[in-house]
Design goal:
The chain contains four helices and two strands. The protein is mainly alpha-helical and 121 residues long.
Length: 121
């Protein structure tokens, strides 16, 4: 059984999940931020989430997964610390969980093909 590519012990070497790390970090920040809703320290959570949403947005556009762009643009706007909306209560708590799910799903699903052997220098 011959193959044009050597087998990788880490799975298929044909894909990279560029949004996985920022997606998981954002999910952790959002989860920790649940305890800080309504407090002054929540501004740090907002900064982290907004910046990581923009990073995942760029990775989704680079991977040509256009359907993720409105999701992360909305997250970046809702969690922006510059002009905060001042949400509070159970609706905001639910939004935190929805954003956690969106970041994890995008991190797993957004992938780009790795460059071929001929394109390496």
């Amino acid at each position: 059984m011959s193959s044009s590519r050597p087998a990788s012990r880490y799975g298929d070497p044909g894909w990279r999940r560029m949004a996985l790390a920022p997606g998981l970090i954002a999910a952790v920040v959002l989860f920790v931020g649940i305890a800080l809703i309504g407090q002054d320290a929540f501004v740090f959570v907002s900064w982290g989430v907004a910046v990581l949403a923009l990073i995942v947005l760029v990775f989704s556009i680079q991977a040509r997964h256009w359907w993720w762009a409105p999701v992360f643009a909305a997250i970046a706007v809702l969690w922006n610390p510059v002009a905060p909306f001042g949400f509070d209560g159970p609706l905001w708590l639910g939004a935190q969980y929805v954003a956690i799910a969106a970041f994890i799903a995008a991190g797993v699903l957004i992938k780009v093909p790795t460059p071929g052997e001929g394109s390496r220098r």
